[in-house]
Amino acid sequence: MDSDHRAVTGARIPDPAVALTSLLRGWWEAYPGTRPTQKALARRAGVDQATMSRYLNPGRPMAAPPRVVRVLHTELRADPARLEEALALAEAVHAARRVPRARGAVVGEAVAGGDGAPVRRRVGVPAAVRVLGHLVLLAAAVWVGAWLRPLPPGPSPISSASAPAAQPSPGPSWPVVRLGDVLWEARTVQHLLNAHGHRVEVTGTVDAATVTAVQGFQSERGLDADGRVGPRTWPRLVVTVRAGDRGDAVTALQALLTNAGHPTAVTGSFTTDTEDVLRAFQSAHGMPATGIAEPPAWLALMGSQQPRLHG
Fold it and tell me: Which end of the chain is more exposed for a tag (fewer CB within 10 A), N or C?
């Protein structure tokens, strides 16, 4: 069948969403070795598992956005030459969604029917003409509404000058943990003290022994040894941890992630699962999804905990 005949008979054009989903599915199935789960891929891309399943299911295609395509290309170790093809498909799908679909309007063109009676034939009005008509009507409605509505009184020069400027909302701040504090605050301080060699029992309560250990830690680092863990002590106390690390600092991190609604096993071993969960948390909070727990990540985690309790 030649190309002219295909054009006349209306041969199907491949759906770019199906083509993209099939391509991503092929990357996943061709992954060398044990391929990552869809749950793990979803965490790395910062989406839920159901959405990732749709991105990889040609039977129920959902076109992945370019950002997710790049993540999958990296995580699935796909052929570098296929990235541009996948990005082009993603852009094609999302560009098509931004173009309004033309609907054929019916105008009354009278023609003669087979028995001589007049009938109506559907004639499509060009999309550009219909859009222009809608814009004209919209502009007229806005003009009439503005003309009929009374003008609001102008602001008083005094009130305008004295009105305070809008202040940006403050970000999370380091908590101040002191004698008698309990639950996550106490456990986090105690785990991190142990990570620095100041051994204390993890009781979930800031007791006298914990305060003494905090004072020793502060003295070593030239801080005011007041026994309270606040904005000057926290940045020294938190530990940068990443995949492969073990110990008390990892335990503290995993407990904070779990309590912030991103559950991971609290084992003290920084596994790939912990890394995936941390990436998802960072992405959800507008941070670079590095999978490395540095001070900004610790600060965001503490700002996402349950309400503070004091003894």
Answer: N
- CA-angle at 220, arms to 218 and 226, nearest 5°: 25
- Cβ atoms of 131 and 117 within 8 Å: the answer is no
d(CA 31, CA 286): 29
Token pair listed for 104? 């054929």
Burial bucket for residue 304 (CB in 10 Å: 0-12, 13-18, 19+)? middle
Identify the H or E element spanning 118.
strand 118-121
CB neighbours of residue 296 within 10 Å: 15
User: What CA–CA distance (Å, rounded) separates 178 from 229?
Assistant: 7
pLDDT tens, residue by residue, 73-116: 999 999 998 999 989 988 887 776 554 444 444 444 444 444 44
Instruction: Tell me if residue 168 falls in helix, strand or coil.
Output: coil
Cα distance between residue 252 and residue 192, in whole Å: 7
**Residues 6+ positions from 22 with CB-CB distance below 8 Å:** 58
Radius of gyration of the chain (CA): 31
In 3D, which of 21, 1, 20, 19 has the Cα closest to residue 11? 1
Q: What residue type is assigned to position 118 of the chain?
A: P
Instruction: Give the CA count within 13 Å in the CB-facing half-sphere of 121.
Output: 8
**pLDDT single digits (tens) 225-241:** 999 999 999 999 999 99
The single-letter code of the amino acid at 238 is V
Contact by Cβ (8 Å): 233, 218? yes
